[in-house]
């Protein structure tokens, strides 16, 4: 039996290290984006999904263009190939996709480009190795300390992240033991509800507002309307320009939200991120425009491939009743929901309607797992404090979860 966990470790960077780490992630992004561009266009009109082929074509050039070590250059190329692979999967299923771009400040390390200790890490940069101490919470029973301090867990690889000026290591850790009973693995999931006012709401109580997105959308629509009135060829070209700019801006925004959702899952030690199946969302949420639907699909796609990097899996579940059902007692009724307010007509539970839905989405996955062939490993939904089990009972601190 293998247990995979992601430990999110804040780093204490020595004086002057910031510049070199930033240089590392910039050059890493350059490798990934260059590789994505090449693999997307491929040769003979086929997308390239072979790491060996991409290495052959790109490695020498990228070693020359950057000051990264061989291993980091390769990791950058491979990150792009993995993303292209998931695009090709989507194309096979007739789903929308577009060339992956890498904008987050990250770099992927393994044991050749980093040395992982229990209290510090040494990272390869263009300026040689840099050693950073871990900043670990004292509580040894909680992640990340629980895993970092436990010799049974081995460091496999890690992604270096820069967030709000600080540096973090998202370390993939593995514990192997002889226990062959696969049903005992405990899973914790993050439920995520997508919507037109709150773009995403996680079962941990994190909200991502759609205000910015909706504001730009209106702005662009007005500009396009004005241009359409002109009807000239120049105006048509200007409209195309507006659309290109619009898509780029929205994609950047969605990448940012996707990174934050994945970080939320990693920080709360979740093995799965659960979304609703988007196939019939326009029926269940009638105010969903095609534009929102595009954003939801893109966001799911981004989360899915960014999550995989962290050893976290994104899944979709049947969305039926997730907005009308009470996440506390299970009572399901149309009257439970009134716009953004949820009030259970049976038990009186009150909360933001999208937050209630996000918990139901997580619970829906739990129920599906219970009927799984392997007998269903125990699964919990991660809340802002503690977790929720399939019976609706809280684990750990039951407070603040009213
Ligand atoms: Zn209720």
Automatic annotation (TrEMBL):
Residues 296-361 form the Cas12f1-like TNB domain. Pfam families: Cas12f1-like_TNB (PF07282). GO terms for molecular function: DNA binding. It comes from the Archaea. Keywords: DNA-binding. This is IS200/IS605 family element transposase accessory protein TnpB. It comes from Halosimplex pelagicum.
């Amino acid at each position: 039996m293998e247990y995979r966990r992601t430990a999110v470790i804040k780093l204490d960077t020595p004086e002057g290290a910031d510049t070199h780490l930033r240089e590392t992630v910039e050059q890493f992004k350059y490798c990934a984006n260059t590789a994505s561009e090449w693999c997307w266009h491929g040769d003979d009109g086929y997308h390239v999904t072979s790491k060996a082929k991409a290495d052959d074509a790109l490695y020498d050039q990228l070693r020359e263009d950057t000051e990264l070590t061989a291993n980091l250059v390769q990791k950058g190329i491979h990150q792009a190939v993995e993303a292209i692979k998931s695009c090709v999967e989507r194309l096979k299923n007739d789903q929308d996709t577009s060339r992956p771009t890498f904008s987050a400040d990250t770099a992927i390390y393994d044991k050749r480009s980093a040395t992982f200790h229990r209290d510090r890490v040494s990272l390869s940069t263009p300026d040689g190795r840099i050693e950073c101490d871990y900043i670990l919470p004292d509580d040894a029973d909680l992640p990340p300390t629980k895993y970092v301090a436990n010799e049974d867990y081995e460091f496999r690889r890690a992604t270096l992240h820069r967030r709000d000026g600080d540096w973090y290591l998202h370390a993939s850790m593995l514990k192997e033991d002889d226990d062959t009973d696969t049903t005992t693995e405990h899973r914790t999931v993050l439920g995520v509800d997508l919507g037109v006012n709150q773009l995403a709401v996680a079962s941990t109580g994190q909200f991502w507002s759609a205000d910015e997105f909706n504001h730009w959308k209106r702005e662009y629509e007005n500009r396009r309307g004005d241009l359409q009135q002109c009807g000239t060829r120049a105006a048509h070209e200007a409209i195309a320009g507006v659309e290109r700019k619009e898509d780029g801006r929205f994609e950047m925004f969605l990448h940012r939200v996707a990174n934050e959702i994945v970080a939320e899952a990693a920080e709360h030690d979740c093995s799965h991120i659960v979304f609703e199946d988007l196939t019939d969302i326009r029926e269940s949420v009638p105010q969903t425009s095609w534009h929102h639907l595009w954003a939801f699909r893109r966001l799911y796609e981004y989360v899915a491939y960014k999550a995989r990097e962290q050893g976290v899996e994104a899944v979709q579940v049947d969305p039926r009743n997730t907005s009308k059902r009470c996440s506390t007692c299970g009572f399901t009724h149309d009257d439970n929901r009134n716009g953004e307010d949820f009030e259970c007509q049976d038990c009186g539970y009150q909360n933001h309607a999208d937050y209630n839905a996000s918990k139901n989405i997580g619970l829906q996955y739990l129920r599906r797992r219970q009927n799984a062939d392997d007998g269903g490993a125990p699964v919990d939904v991660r809340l802002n404090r503690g977790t929720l089990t399939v019976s609706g009972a809280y684990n750990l601190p039951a407070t603040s979860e009213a």
